């Protein structure tokens, strides 16, 4: 009886060994398809699309829409950070209009921090990150800042930070206007045309 168990284990080992050595896991993809479909339901890719596949780290990547990039973008398209959400607009961001942030306090890195914690990788701008689920987080903005596109997983920016070219990405941008008394007022550049039917 024990010899049959050893023989079955050896046969299974010899069958799976070449698959593991070659990294040829495509044969397993159809069997795992229901898992992959559900995986992307739990992932927010921002302005991108989730693509699940066993060959990627964390088993998925975010493919960014035109005009958007990841927080760890180093101009290397072959990097291993493709699981990060596409939340940084590829437009002019001018931080000189904001007050200087306070210096980062010196503190010890928590021993329980995990690379699998989405807040480890998230960029919240002028806000703090709070994990809400395995792959999800929210950016809670400081006073005077708001989430980009009013989505809680986008970074927090001040309106003055966003350049006028950001409007092409669907971002509402304030414009500077001269008022009749010589001061400077703020207005919104309309991004959507409202139709009125008479």
Structure characteristics:
single chain; 198 residues; two-stranded antiparallel ribbon; 21% strand; EGF-like domain-containing protein; signal
Short description:
19% of the residues lie in helices and 21% in strands. The protein contains three helices and ten strands, in the order H-H-E-E-E-E-H-E-E-E-E-E-E.
Total count of strands: 10
Please identify the structural class as seen in this structure. Answer: alpha+beta
Distance between the termini: 87 Å
Principal-axis shape equals: elongated
Total domain modules: 1
Unreliable stretches (pLDDT < 50, length at least 5) are 176-198
Keywords: Signal
Protein name: EGF-like domain-containing protein
What does this structure look like?
Keywords: Signal. Residues 1-23 form the signal peptide. This is EGF-like domain-containing protein. It comes from Gossypium schwendimanii. The structure is a single chain. Helices cover 19% and strands 21% of the residues. The chain is an alpha+beta fold. The strands form 5 sheets. It has a two-stranded antiparallel ribbon with strand order 1-2. Strands 3-4 form a two-stranded antiparallel sheet. Strands 5-6 form a two-stranded antiparallel sheet. The longest helix has 21 residues, at 2-22.
Describe the secondary structure blueprint for this structure.
Layout: H1 2-22, H2 29-41, E1 48-52, E2 60-64, E3 68-70, E4 86-89, H3 118-121, E5 127-131, E6 137-141, E7 146-147, E8 156-157, E9 174-178, E10 184-188
Antiparallel strand pairs: 1-2, 3-4, 5-6, 7-8, 9-10
């Amino acid at each position: 009886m024990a010899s049959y168990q050893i023989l079955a284990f050896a046969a299974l080992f010899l069958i799976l060994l070449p698959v593991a050595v070659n990294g040829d896991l495509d044969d397993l993809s159809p069997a795992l398809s229901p898992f992959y479909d559900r995986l992307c339901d739990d992932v927010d890719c921002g302005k991108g699309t989730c693509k699940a596949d066993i060959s990627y780290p964390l088993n998925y990547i975010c493919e960014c829409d035109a005009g958007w990039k990841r927080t760890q973008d180093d101009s290397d398209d072959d990097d291993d950070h493709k699981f990060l959400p596409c939340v940084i607009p590829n437009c002019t961001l001018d931080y000189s209009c904001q007050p200087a942030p306070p210096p980062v306090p010196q503190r010890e890195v928590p021993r329980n921090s995990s690379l699998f914690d989405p807040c480890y990788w998230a960029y919240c701008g002028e806000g703090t990150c709070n994990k809400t689920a395995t792959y999800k987080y929210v950016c809670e903005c400081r006073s005077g800042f708001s989430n980009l596109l009013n989505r809680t997983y986008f970074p927090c920016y001040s309106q003055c930070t966003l350049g006028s070219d950001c409007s092409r990405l669907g971002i509402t941008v304030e414009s500077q206007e001269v008022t009749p008394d010589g001061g400077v007022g703020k207005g919104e550049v309309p991004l959507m045309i409202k139709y009125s039917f008479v």
